[in-house]
Amino acid sequence: MKLYVIIPLCALLTLTQQAPPREKCACELNNSEKAFPHGKLRIVETNASDCNSNITPQKTVELESLLLGLERRLSQLNKDVLILEKEDDGELYGVLSLYVIENEMTEIKQLIDKLNSTTQQHQILTANATEQLDNLKAEMQELEKFDTMQVIKGQQVNSALKADLFKCNKKLNTTVTPTEPPQGTCPRSRLLNVTGPRVYTAGEYPGSYAYGAWGRDPRPEEGKESWYWLVMLTSSNIYAHYVRLYSSLSSLIIGVSVPGNVQIHSSNPTTNTIQGPNNVLYGGALYYNCYNQDYVCRFNLTTKSVTTLQLPKGTRYNSKGNFCHLEECYPYTDLDLATDESGVWVVYTTTQDFGNLVLSKLEEGEPPVLGKTWRTSVYKRAVTNTFMACGVLYATRYINREVEEIFYSFNTVTGQERFNIGIFMNKMSTNIQSLNYSPVDQMLHAYCDSNMVSYKVLFG
Ligand SMILES: *[C@@H]1O[C@H](CO)[C@@H](O)[C@H](O)[C@H]1NC(C)=O
Ligand SMILES: *[C@@H]1O[C@H](CO)[C@@H](O)[C@H](O)[C@H]1NC(C)=O
Ligand SMILES: *[C@@H]1O[C@H](CO)[C@@H](O)[C@H](O)[C@H]1NC(C)=O
Ligand SMILES: *[C@@H]1O[C@H](CO)[C@@H](O)[C@H](O)[C@H]1NC(C)=O
Ligand SMILES: *[C@@H]1O[C@H](CO)[C@@H](O)[C@H](O)[C@H]1NC(C)=O
Ligand SMILES: *[C@@H]1O[C@H](CO)[C@@H](O)[C@H](O)[C@H]1NC(C)=O
Ligand SMILES: *[C@@H]1O[C@H](CO)[C@@H](O)[C@H](O)[C@H]1NC(C)=O
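Above: query sequence and 2-acetamido-2-deoxy-beta-D-glucopyranose SMILES. Below: predicted holo structure tokens.
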């Protein structure tokens, strides 16, 4: 290489020696620009994203749930005070009702305290975030002065373009897949959207039990209309042996279980204890998959007796026919019990159905019997959970840590199946261990990594 350069140079030298001397020509590059401080921009970006991750959606919903709890509680108090006034007999003045109201006042006080401490935490967080944002803003303005190279402006234009593209894409996609959900067994049958979460709470045992189910009895016994129930899989994330009851949504949120536990059996696991998370309470009885059997068990909370119903031969059980997503399956989710306006259903799969979802109606009675059965063409392992609403079966699938999609429906009236429902649910944590619809208030109750979450279902 050097040799190659030297030879022409020598030739040039000899040439210049022969040629008349020329004027010297110099070109000085004077860069008046200071170098753009990319490092600083990176720090600002990191600080901004730290700030973002401090304010999570969980924190905003937490406050909303508390307020909802308080709202429900206050209307209950109002009702009870009205009853007390009616009971006024001059002498006794409804001693019993007074006692009830005193309890309620205590509960409301606890709720307000929790609200107060949450609000204060939020204020600290907000103050912190505001200060950080001010700093970031000042820093960005400083950087913009540097920005003769248009680095930041370029980025702003880029992100605006990206947003436009995203909007455009979305518009296109929604026009391609118009959702016209099927008709079911009741007027409220066109499921349009799922919004929320409305409630998000860690409840009484924050973070303790990853698997469980909770909800509201759609056909409650008298006086228990506002009760909520909770089943946590307390043994190996598989088994449970009691139902925990709460007299209201707010007592569930603040973790005060007044009626307490109703025990199925003192040991866990054993015959007839609960196996797997997808249970429901209906008409004062818990319906669930029971220990080591292809049975639906019904536990009457009043009489504390269990009646059983064997599912068809070939039914997959003991974690052989689970709900799954690409990464993993949810263990012991062989049987998914569900409630809707018409009663109790069971969703499962069998060997003869090659792992596709099978749906059966449970007919009440002594003992309960298996009613009509429908076979679907959706593979159970491609589904993360199901629920029933107005005689229509809906199935969900995992999209990512933040989003679950209701993608499938099966109409028991027409037998029509759809794979393009396209309704998205915002998640507060990665997994949904159980999901059920409450026809009383059109809410979806989900148990998500030990949190209790509920969504509002909108019908057309
Ligand atoms: C280069 O820029 C500096 C600062 O603006 C100035 O002081 C200097 O005279 C310039 N040099 C030339 C050759 O223009
Ligand atoms: C980024 O955050 C760190 C630590 O909180 C802080 O020391 C620094 O001043 C911040 N930088 C900017 C540009 O806001
Ligand atoms: C909220 O908490 C603060 C500090 O713990 C207390 O001073 C204040 O009285 C509380 N407010 C209410 C309405 O309980
Ligand atoms: C406020 O911000 C600082 C620095 O970013 C952080 O260390 C601190 O934990 C924050 N405080 C709260 C209550 O979030
Ligand atoms: C729209 O659909 C296309 C192709 O299926 C996909 O690449 C794109 O991410 C979708 N856009 C939105 C906003 O969902
Ligand atoms: C459903 O609700 C979400 C948020 O609540 C909203 O962003 C979305 O546009 C709604 N979808 C439809 C089809 O109304
Ligand atoms: C539970 O038992 C009681 C008393 O026998 C009965 O009245 C009630 O109907 C039973 N509930 C269910 C759901 O079977």
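The pocket of 2-acetamido-2-deoxy-beta-D-glucopyranose (ligand 3) is lined by residues 116 (CB under 6 Å).
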